[in-house]
Amino acid sequence: MADIIKIGAYLCKGCGLGERLNIGALENAAKRAGKASVVRSHGFLCNQEGVELIKADIEKEGVTRVVIAACSRRAKTEAFRFDEVAVSRANLREGVIWIRPDTKEAKETTQEMAEDYVRMACAEVRRMTLPTANPKAALNRRILVVGGGISGMTAALEASQAGYGVTIVEKTDRLGGWAGRLYKRVADRYPFADPADTGVADMVKAIQSDAKITVHLNALVSRTSGAPGRFEVEITSGGAATNETFGSIIQASGFTRYDLANLPEMGGGTLKDVVDQAGLEELALAAAGGPIKRPSDGREVRSVIFVQCAGQRSEKPGHLPYCSGFCCTTSIKQAMYFKDRNPEIDTVVLFSDLRTPGAGGEDFYRNGQRKGVTFAKGSVRAVVQGEAGPVVQFQDEILNDSVSMPVDLVVLATGQVANAGVNIENAPESAESVQKVSILNLTYRQGPDVPQLKHGFSDSHFICFPYETRRTGIYTAGPVRRPMDIAQAMEDATGATLKAIQTLENAGLGRAAHPRVGDLSFPTFRREGCTQCKRCTVECPFGAIDEDEQRYPQFNEARCRRCGTCMGACPVRVISFENYSVETVGQQVKSLEIPDEFSGKPRVLIFACENDAYPALDMAAQNRLEYSAYVRVIPVRCLGSVNTIWLNDALNNGYDGVMLMGCQKGENYQCHFVKGSEMAYYRMSKIGDTLKGMNLDTERVTTYEVAITDIHRIPKLINDYIAMIEKIGPSPFKGF
Amino acid sequence: MSNPNQTIPGQYRGNFLREVEANVEEGEWVKMCMQCGVCAGSCPLGPYWDYPPQQIFMMIRAGKREEVLSSTSMWMCTSCYNCMVRCPRELPITHIMHGLATYAKRIGKAPQTPITPRFAQKFWDNLTVTGRVNELKLGLALYFINGIGEGIQTAMKMQDIGLGMLKTKRMSPFEILGGHGIKDKAGFRAMLKKAEEIELAKIAKNQVAGV
Ligand code: SF4
Ligand code: SF4
Ligand code: SF4
Hints:
The complex is a heterodimer.
Chain A: E1 7-12, H1 17-20, H2 23-31, E2 38-42, H3 48-61, E3 65-70, E4 86-91, H4 93-97, H5 104-126, E5 142-146, H6 150-161, E6 165-169, H7 200-208, E7 213-216, E8 219-225, E9 231-237, E10 240-246, E11 248-251, E12 255-257, E13 274-276, H8 277-287, E14 303-307, H9 327-341, E15 346-351, H10 361-370, E16 374-385, E17 390-396, E18 401-406, E19 409-412, E20 416-418, H11 431-434, E21 474-476, H12 486-508, E22 524-525, H13 535-539, E23 545-547, E24 553-555, H14 565-569, E25 575-576, H15 582-590, E26 604-609, H16 613-622, E27 631-636, H17 644-652, E28 657-662, H18 676-685, H19 688-693, E29 701-705, H20 713-728
Parallel strand pairs in A: 1-2, 1-3, 3-4, 5-6, 5-11, 6-7, 11-21, 13-19, 14-15, 14-19, 15-16, 26-27, 26-28, 28-29
Antiparallel strand pairs in A: 8-9, 9-10, 12-20, 16-17, 17-18, 22-25, 23-24
Helix pairs in contact in A: 2-5, 5-15, 6-7, 6-12, 8-9, 9-10, 15-17
Chain B: H1 15-23, H2 38-42, H3 53-62, H4 65-69, H5 82-86, H6 93-106, H7 116-130, H8 135-143, H9 148-157, H10 159-167, H11 185-209
The structure holds iron/sulfur cluster (SF4) (3 copies).
One iron/sulfur cluster binds next to α14 of chain A.
């Protein structure tokens, strides 16, 4: 069926299209330029009658490609969904009549715009085929959880309760992680008054009695290969290796303790009675409800100072620049260990900004105050050894007072250091990072671990897609992702579990995971044409492409997010999707008639990211904001999928300029494919020379960062660009 | 400022806080202050204080007994209640200020410089005679609080206002002879006596407890 190309073009006359446009001329464009075999117009195409009309043609007339010339591809998606044929949309409503004034003068250019979009849609659909699901699709309903701390245990229990099998790999000899080494946890329910049981023992018990959960202790993941639905994992324990396959992976490798030796000025690593919060938990556990004793001489602690933000929120070398978020509440809890036993014990918390996140944080703080914990805003200069114990020298920031206070014990609230494995993207800077060991030992070409973003935490979009890593089917949860406390880690693990389930189910159906969930298309490459340049394998943001024995790219469809960055990267243009390729776009570019240089009608092509820029254009149209009739917009999956050949084609065909609109890049990226827009910027930064070689002004290709909210900015960008083009004059390539 | 190398016993140890909690009305609230500074920024008299409320509360927690009790701060409070309605922790700040003032005066720590402690005493003495404030006597007492010379000057300055008040019957010159009072003076005195008893019992109890 797919081989026979029979195009049916359907024009809608509803929503004012019939009044504003010359439908007869559009029909002609579809027939002549678009070579559509069947062309019909309808007064209300998205209603049942209109849809039936199209369905009848597919069934009786043998139409295999459908062009809908009506509203934006983002509208009426349910009505215009025909699973058995390829569909392309000519955006005449949001793309033309809603952004053009209804005036006599504008009529001609508006009509030209509409006719071009019909031509483009016909050219596109001619090259599209129906995507078929990934042939290597595999369904595996087992999830690997790496790390048996609070996050890992939560993930395992959640997955099991949802009916999925789980294997936990834990490197130590017991489950529980850091939470298992706490005397008590911060209160987690009303009235948030007292330290509470950690709940670890109950969770361990639940895991041990759960037939769907297998636990490997003293074990490591020594090799991970494959893709969602078919991860092959080697688990090594005590020298023996076992192999198992999984549908998806949750990495809950948590954090490591900040090295106290980095804080010698605070007595870290030098004074026995200066401990970190984990150290205090050890003392509290040892005390087992009795008086807490200090390490140096085993005397009962009668006075203790907690120093917040120790080695944190500081730009000093060796310090952590971020706030770990859990430590203020932890110090309150630990001060309560003392106060609850004996209110006479002096407990002082020195803070710079007391931060108690979470629903009960503030109540817990108040309860600390009620119990008599003294809170003072102070910055510690030094902790020195006094006659009877450590002496804390600090500045009281409220009273502007230098204070020296002798105490029995000092607790430094140090932060969480991510345990995310090897930083595969940046060359290790210090000796310390060289020693980092891999967590997953991925056999992926791009490196053995998930990529990191900032401060060694795994890369995931903080707000929009928090659990996604840049390795499809592998989700990070808990403090490996960002610093957090127990309550947050449990929530995090639950979210990551749902994502892991979603991804393995999609992989089983051969469909894409986030953000093109359900997409069946995937990239293939023409082996004969490939020059083995490796650009695709390097640039794929998701590490989806490995190399085979002959050093050709090897696509792992289930790891692919369908962004098309590889397609944009390929210099010999051998990578394509069934329904999205160098041809489907290239032919649209070439399908227009470019008015000559004397017409006064420039032509500017816009490649707009379909995640942000294209919706922003649609919304500008919904607000009836006007923009120039000289632009033609082609939505792209990601700016990273833009192949420079399209720019070449456009400029050679006499377009006066090309605008590229993608998402924000860099540390605070908004790109749905993380690195796609960054790659596009990088590539565009290199085409200046090509433009100069063609004797063209570099402004003829301009890249913009556009957010979905830029509804009012986007028409202005367009209009300013057209004004600039009119100033520098028409392209010298017109008419060739 | 104290010497950084000198350690003061009792600092940040909560001794003074406990003293305040036991002896000052609403003193048990002091520990609940979160040092946000809203009160300090809200007080219209703030710039004239030795220490704004926020700082007073921190000083109590830091054990600065002498500085707090002898400070002019709580004597500057005009009871406008700005701070109290704004405090996110809902501390009864105004009441604590008066409580601190009362306590400081009781143990002889109240400062001499601002006239407020002395005026407060005059107000009390005036009120307790008849159960009503004798405004004429109170006004004159205030004029002469710092001596005859200043008193005459102030009285001269206020002459027109005083005459105006007499004319509009806002004030009676006969008040100088004793003035009018409430009906049940005996009951009033009994009430004051009872209050004093309660107060003294509380103090005695605290002394036994050693705070
Ligand atoms: S670049 Fe994008 S489309 Fe290409 S293989 Fe990677 S994820 Fe898939
Ligand atoms: S407003 Fe309330 S909480 Fe804030 S500093 Fe003043 S007393 Fe403390
Ligand atoms: S009530 Fe007193 S302390 Fe509070 S703002 Fe008014 S004057 Fe200042």
